[in-house]
Amino acid sequence: MVDIKDQKINIFYIEDNLGDVELLKKAFEIAGIDISLTTAKDGDIALKMLNREAGFSDLEDPDIILLDLNLPKKDGSELLKEIKANSELKHLPILIYTSSKSARDITESYYNYANGYVVKPSDKQSLEKTANTIVNFWAKSTRLS
Amino acid sequence: MPEIGFDNHIKKAFDLLPNLIWSSDEEVNCLFVNQCWCEFTGVTLEDSLGKGWQKSFHAEDIQKIESILKTHDKSNDEVEFRVQKSDGSFAWMTNKLSKKDGIIIGILTDISSMIEKQKAVEEGVQRTKDFLKSVIEGIPDPIFVKDEKHRWVEGNKAFFEILNMTREEVLYKSDYDFFSKEEADIFWEMDNAVFESGEVLDNFETLTHNGEKKTFYTRKVMATDPDGKRILVGAIRDITELEKIKERLERAVEELTESNEDLERFAYVASHDLQEPLRMIINFTGLLEDSYADRLDETAKKYIAFASDSAKRMESLVDDLLEYARFNESVEHKVRVNCNEIINYVLKNLYEPMQATSASITIKGKLPNLVSANPVRISRVFQNIIGNAIKYHKPNEKPEIEISCTEQEGFWQFRVSDNGIGIDKEYHERIFVPFKRLHTNEEYSGTGIGLAICKKIAESKGGKIWVESEVGSGSTFVFTIPRIAGDELV
Predict the structure, then answer these.
(1) Which of B356, B352, B413, B422 is nearest to B383 (CA)?
(2) Three-state DSSP class for B488?
(3) Closest CA–CA distance from residue B461 to any residue of chain A (Å)
(4) Quick check: B284 and A123 in contact, CB under 8 A?
C-alpha cells in the first residue's frame, strides 16, 4: 500500500483562470499538502502537452488531471472525450473540477468516462476540504491500480 | 228466392249489421237497403226503393254505377263511389259486390276517413321533405348526392355555387365532365372505396379553386335512396381559413417555445458564467480578511466586509436564478411519497430557524400519499412556504404554523397558515414574481425567488398557488395539485 504522506502528488490542472490556479495552490497550502503542479490554460495546449508534442517531451505522467469544463477553444467536455478515446492517455484519472452544479454537466461528465467530479470551493472554509477530497481520491485510485 | 235477392230472415240479419248493404237489379233499381244505409243517408227504405236511392249518389258517379251494375259479371268485386250522408256531405265508400241471377248485392265500407288519413300522411311527408330540403339548402357547406354511376343526382345551393354552375348544368353529369382526368380518377376511386366498404371516408385536399389555393375537407358516406338504390352523400367544408389559423397558431407556439427556451438558456448561461467571477471575489476577499488581518486598519476591513457581503448576496441571487432557469432540466420518475414524510424532511432542513424562533408546526387532519414525479419539488414548495412563515413572524411572537389538506374536485388542496406579519392585498400577486421583494435585506434577508419557484412547481404539475392574507393577521398559502390515480388519504 502506498503511504500518501510520503508521496508528492503530481497534479496537471487544465484551467484558464489564474485566480483558480492560485486558489488551488492556497487550498493545498492550507491543508498542508505538498504538491507538484503543472497547468495548461486551454484544451489545445493541454492535449499537446499530454501527447508530448514539441516542447513538452519531458512532461511526466500526472497522478491526477484536474479539468475545468469552461475552457477557451476546446472546452473541458470535448477534451475529456478526446483523452478517454486515446489509448495512450485514457488510463490517466481525470477529475472534473468546475463551479457547475448542474445535473446535466455531472451526468454528461460521467457518461464521458470522467473518474470523478468535484465542485470548486465557493468560500475559504471549503478550500481545505476540497484539497483533502482531491488527495483522498488520488489515494483511493492509487490503491486500486 | 224473393226478388230482392234474399229472404226476410237474411234481411233482418242485414239490418243488424254495422255496414251499409243494398241490393239492386242491373237497371240501378233499388230492391233493398238495410237499416244502416237508411241511418247513414237519412233516406228511408221506402224512399230508396226503385230509382229513389239514386239521389244518395254523387251526380258524377251515377254513370259509373250504372255501367258497373250492367257489366258486372264476377261474383265478387270491388268498386268505389260516393254516398251522400244525412248531413249532405259525401263519403267515399268501397263496395264489395256479389251478383247472381241479375241481382246485385253490395256491402259498403266508409273509406273517406282512411283517405283523409292517407292524405294527411302524404302532406306530412311532403312537409318533412320540404323542411329537410330547406335545411339542406340553407347549410353553408356544399352537400351533394351521387348515384352508383358516379353521377350527381342532387345537391344543395352551396354545392352548385362552389362549382360555379347551375343545378341543370351539373345534375346527371360526373366528375369527368368538370375535372381533369387525373382529378376525376381520384374522386372515382374514393367513391368506389365508399361503395365497396360502406364506411365513412374523410378526405383533406388542397386545390386551386377560382385562382385561389383552398383546402377542403370532404366526408363521403354511403346511403340508400327512397327506391332502395345505393347512393353516396358527400359534404364538403372549406377549411382554408381554419388551416391558416392553425398554421399561425402552430408557428406562434413554436416561436414562443423557442423564445422561452432561449430565455432559459440565457438565464442559465448568464448565471453560470456570473458564478465564476463571484467565486473569485468571495474567495479572495476571504483570503484578504484572513491573511492580512494584522496589516489592515478598521476602515479597510469594513470595506472588505461590504464587498464580501455583497458578493455573497449576489451569489445566492445567482444560485436561485440558476435553480429557476434549470427547472426543466431534471428527469422525472414517478414514486409514491407520503406527505408527512415530506414535511418531516422539510422540518429537518428548517431546524435552525425553527429553533431560533421557537416555531411550532401542527399538521391538522390527514395528509395524502402522493404518486409524484419528483417529490423533491413538492418538498421545495413546503420548505419555501414554511420557511417564509418562520421568517416573517411578528416581532416578539412565536411562529405558529398549521398545515392541512382537503380533497377538492380532482385536486388536493394544501393550506399552510401562519400567525405572521401578513401581506397587503396589493402584493398578493406580486410576491410570486421572480426577484420581487417586499422588504429590504436589512429587515428580512432573501432573494425573492422562493415563491416564484413554488408557483413554477405548482403550475408545472397542473395546479395553482395563491395567498389569503391581510396585514397583521397572518397568511395562508394555498396550493393545489391534481389528484392522480394511486393518490390516497392515509
Answers:
(1) B352
(2) strand
(3) 21
(4) no
Residues in contact with B115: Cβ distance below 8 Å, sequence separation at least 6, in sequence order: B92
Least confident of B99-103, B319-323, B349-353: B319-323
Cell digits of residue B25: 237489379
- pLDDT, tens digit, 9 for 90 and up, residues B35-51: 999 999 999 989 999 99
- Contacts with B279 from chain A: Cβ below 8 Å: 99, 120-122
Q: What is the DSSP letter of B332?
A: -
Nearest-angstrom CA–CA distance, A140 and A63: 12
Strands B360-364 and B400-408: parallel
pLDDT tops 80 at residue B322: no
- How far apart are alpha carbons B445 and B356 in whole angstroms? 15
Least CB-CB distance to B326: which of A17, A26, A102?
A102
Tell the residue number behind the cell numbers 377549411, with chain if given: B239
Residue A66 contacts residue A40 (beta carbons within 8 Å): no
The pTM (predicted TM-score) of the whole model is: 0.49
A 100-119 residues inside an 8 A Cβ radius of B: 100-104
Count helices and strands in chain B by DSSP H and E runs:
15, 18
Q: Which residues of B touch A19 (CB under 8 A)?
A: 280, 283-284
Beta bridge partners of B222: B232
Closest-CA distance of chain A to residue B477, Å: 30
pLDDT digits (tens, 9 = 90+) for B249-301: 999 999 988 888 887 777 777 777 788 888 889 999 988 888 888 998 999 99
* Cell numbers that stand for B79 in this block: 268498386
Q: What is the pLDDT of residues B395-418, one digit of tens each?
A: 889 999 999 999 988 899 999 999
Residue B53 exposed, middle or buried by CB count within 10 Å (0-12, 13-18, 19+): buried
- Cα of B479 vs its chain's centroid, Å: 30
Q: Which helix (H) or strand (E) holds B207?
A: strand B201-209
| A121 close to B (CB below 8 A) | yes
Q: Is A99 close to B290, i.e. CB distance below 8 A?
A: no
Beta-strand runs (E) in chain A = 9-14, 35-40, 64-67, 94-98, 116-119
Contacts of A102 in chain B (CB under 8 A): 268, 272, 322, 326, 329
The nearest alpha carbon in chain B to A19 belongs to B280
Please tell me the distance from the alpha carbon of residue B389 to that of residue B444, in angstroms, as a whole number: 12
- Pairing of the two strands B20-25 and A35-40: unpaired
Q: Is A121 close to B330, i.e. CB distance below 8 A? A: no
Tell me the β-bridge partners of A18.
none
**Alpha carbons B170 and B179: distance in angstroms, whole number:** 12
Residues 6+ apart with CB under 8 A from B218: B202, B203, B204, B205, B234, B235, B236, B237
